[in-house]
Amino acid sequence: MMKRMLPAPLLSLGLCVTWLLLNQSLSPGHVLLALVLGLALPLLFRGLRPQKVRVRHLGSVLRLCFMVMVDTTLSNIAVLRFLLLPGQRRHAPDFVKIPLELRDPNGLAVLAMIVCITPGTVWAELSLDRSLLMLHVLEVEDAQAIVQHVKTRYERPLMEIFE
């Protein structure tokens, strides 16, 4: 019963506190509005929440975090080179289609975040059946190498973690 009334108690608390901090006020009107927002928004948007997260392998999480950190750093350096020396562009940008085996919505959300924080890549489209991801990549020398990189360094660990 409580779960239906308050589907995300920490989110509700966070919304209330954030509202009060942003307004720097504890007036009755602000407190009432904070409570209404904190209770109503999680109820209104609970249908958008993906299924419950079950992390299966903590070691895989740590390895994935390290790989993302390394890849993001290398990508930052590559984009910096591109911005500082635009005349030395090595390869043209292109869209790369990556066949996916990952189906878990939480895993796909993490994959989207990884792609979005990695400079030089943008999540362009996911097919309706979630079997094909299209990325826009700033410099593409070998599209198949990019496919293999995403599948081995991100998709496989995410499948270990979420599926």
Outline of the structure:
The protein is mainly α. It has six helices and three strands, in the order H-H-H-H-E-H-E-E-H.
Walk me through this protein's architecture.
This protein is mainly α and 163 residues long. The protein has 2 domains: 2-48, no CATH class; 58-162, no CATH class. It is built from 6 helices and 3 strands. It has helices spanning 2-5, 9-23, 28-44, 58-84, 105-117, 143-162; strands at 94-99, 121-126, 132-137. Strands 1-3-2 form a 3-stranded antiparallel sheet, covered by helices on one side. β2 (121-126) and β3 form a beta hairpin. The radius of gyration is 21 Å and the shape is globular. The protein starts with a helix and ends with a helix. 17% of the residues are buried. The model has no long low-confidence stretch (mean pLDDT 88).
Highlighted features:
2 domains; 59% helix; mainly alpha; 163 residues; globular; single chain
Shape: globular
How many domains?
2
Question: What is the residue-averaged pLDDT?
Answer: 88
DSSP helical segment count: 6
Radius of gyration: 21 Å
Overall structural class, as computed from helix and strand content, comes to: mainly alpha
Which regions are unreliable across 5 or more consecutive residues at pLDDT < 50? none
- What is the spatial order of strands in the main beta sheet? 1-3-2
Number of strands: 3
Between the first and last Cα atoms, what is the distance in angstroms? 29 Å
Order of helices and strands: HHHHEHEEH
How helix-rich are the residues, as a percent range?
A: 55-70%
